[in-house]
Amino acid sequence: MNELPVFDKEGTLDRVDSDIELLHELFDIYLEERDGMLAQIQEGVEQENASKLEKSAHAAKSALGNLGAMRCQALCFELEKLGRAGSLEGAKEKYDELVSEVAHFDKAIEAERTSD
After folding, report:
1. What is the pLDDT at residue 107?
2. Does the domain spanning 9-115 belong to CATH 3.40.350.10?
């Protein structure tokens, strides 16, 4: 996991055609939706609802991947697979790791915003 970047700036800029203003708008949307996104995953874990975990982790995986949050995306994919398999063993630990990586990503995008 640590071999993946916290924030893939180059890949993300490619996805937005190097439009920094658009990238910052996407960061704003992410920050508005982040807590709800994490809450959906947490509910799936806490309620031991594999289907909810799979769906919420899949949605988060897509959103985070588009923003270049590579470690977060990988953790969401692992959570999605757990939900799909119907086995939530280790899901709490993966969720806690995701929350930690989201905090690292948030710091990375804040640094990115202030450097432009």
Report:
1. 97
2. no
